[in-house]
């Protein structure tokens, strides 16, 4: 089976040890198991981080829904399918604000927290006038109210009516005027 070459007998098979293939396969399997374990550990750590983030988000949601006056106020004035033209646009404005298309009454205004000292707000009745002029998209009152609802604040002075956060107002104006 061998061929003589300068007096040395060579086999026609590999010069590697007989157990080389077994060792190579075993090492490949070991490396594969290590990669799988590493991947599992990575996925488990990402899962733990995501679960922690979810818990924080749920506690924030719970805290925000438990705030008095904020969630209960708007839930009582907005019902599904209530998106007709007579729906109050900004349910926290004073009773003196009326228009031909949307009515805003004082009954839908709740005891909201006043704006913070660093918070920039606009009176709801002024915001309504600006929105009515810029509503090129033709969004209905329900949609507009849903957009602004998180930004509603109580009056900063007596008989001032409610206020709306400027950041939300400007983002709404940008949306309706560019649509």
Automatic annotation (TrEMBL):
InterPro entries for this protein: bZIP_sf
Gene3D superfamilies the UniProt entry points to: 1.20.5.170
Annotated coiled-coil segments of the chain: 26-67
SUPFAM superfamilies to which the protein is assigned, alphabetical: Leucine zipper domain
GO molecular function: DNA-binding transcription factor activity
Keywords from the named record: Coiled coil
Native source organism of the sequence: Neonectria ditissima
Protein name (database record): BZIP domain-containing protein
């Amino acid at each position: 089976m061998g061929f003589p070459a300068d007096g040395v007998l060579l086999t026609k098979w590999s010069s590697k040890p007989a157990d080389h293939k077994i060792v190579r396969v075993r090492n490949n399997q070991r490396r594969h198991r290590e990669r799988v374990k590493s991947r599992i550990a990575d996925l488990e750590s990402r899962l733990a981080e995501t679960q922690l983030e979810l818990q924080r988000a749920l506690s924030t949601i719970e805290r925000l829904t438990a705030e008095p006056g904020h969630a209960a106020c708007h839930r009582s004035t907005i019902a599904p399918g209530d998106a007709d033209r007579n729906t109050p646009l900004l349910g926290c404005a004073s009773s003196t604000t009326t228009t031909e298309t949307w009515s805003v009454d004082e009954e839908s205004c709740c005891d909201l927290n006043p704006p913070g000292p660093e918070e920039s707000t606009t009176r709801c009745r002024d915001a309504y006038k600006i929105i009515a002029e810029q509503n090129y998209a033709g969004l209905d009152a329900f949609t507009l109210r849903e957009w602004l609802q998180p930004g509603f604040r109580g009056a900063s002075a007596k008989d001032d009516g409610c206020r709306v956060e400027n950041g939300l107002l400007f983002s709404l104006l940008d949306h309706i005027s560019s649509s």
